[in-house]
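Review this today:
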Amino acid sequence: MNPLQITLGVVVGLMAGTLSGLFGVGGGVITQPAVYALLGGTPIQAVATPLPVIFPTSVMAAYAYARAGEVSYRAARWGAGPGIVGATIGAYLTKFVNPHVLLLVASTLIGLSGTQIIRGRTPSTPWEKGKTPVWKYGVIAFGAGFASGLLGVGGGIIIVPALTLLIGMPLKRALGTSLVLIAALVVPGTLVHAALGHIDWTIFLVLVVGVIPGAWLGSRIALGARERTLRLAVGAFLVAIAVVYGIEQIVSLVGDGG
């Protein structure tokens, strides 16, 4: 990597880490295209290299949420295993399905979830600490892991709206819990891609220099924000991601058909 690419890598990492801390996601939406377009990585490295970057990003941001008491360890404990299984199954099924159609459906659901979060919709039964049946956490994490493995989307954009809309978990706690689960979900993919030699560890190190302080910054901003302000920001982020994913898949489908 040349000096310009190193500088760009640190800046990209800072942006991805800030997004992670703010919205409870892994930051791959920023790092994946940057690895290929800006940092000199190959297409497969663009897919694989962000995975190990997500781990320290998520851990750093989750630590900040945990210190503020905004992590549900019960949800993380019961969701980690099913999430990993879901990610493994989803990754395996990519060879049998058309991911463009599925991702178009997923983007629609993510967009609807974002609008519901903006509106402040909550379940009829309020969330109570220690009262939610643990199987619900397992189902949510399995679905997020499955979508992550099958569609290549970040698990956080599934986990956060699911925790807030389906079981009524407070948004800040949902963000912190999502980060803990994301850290677990990226482990299988990281190990597989590392064994296959798909990860550029130089790019990884450059990105990490930026993502760690970025994750701390993003989490501090989110924890200090008012609930309504944070809800509007998270909802708008999800809607924006849904629009981008949706347009990409429509273009891909039209191109395949042509």
